[in-house]
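Handoff note, outgoing to incoming analyst
You'll be picking up this chain. Sequence as last confirmed:
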Amino acid sequence: QTLDTMTDLQCVDNIRVLSADIVQKANSGHPGAPMGCAPIAHVLWSQVMNYNPAEPSWINRDRFVLSNGHACALLYTMLHLTGDQEITMDQLKQFRQLGSKTAGHPENHLVAGIEGSAGPLG
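Most recent structure output, in case you need it:
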């Protein structure tokens, strides 16, 4: 699987910019991992994974498990861009804020699209 079209490159750029923007707005977090992993995420979600964001508990879905909290902005960005109804733009704007579904380290009990959790920091 490769990124060989202009559309693919634009998708990757959009993933990078949105991930960096939510980290910047929070004034907390790490944009490097999400920006560096954007091509991988794009290929996985657009060409490899079998899932339905309208049915996050579908038994035969492929699961994306991210245990690297430093890259969680990427996970939230991908969930939002692929149609997860729980991760709205407003939730992205609340990244790393108290009470948000977009915690600094993903927590699977907050959002159905998050398949695993290493737990919160602290």
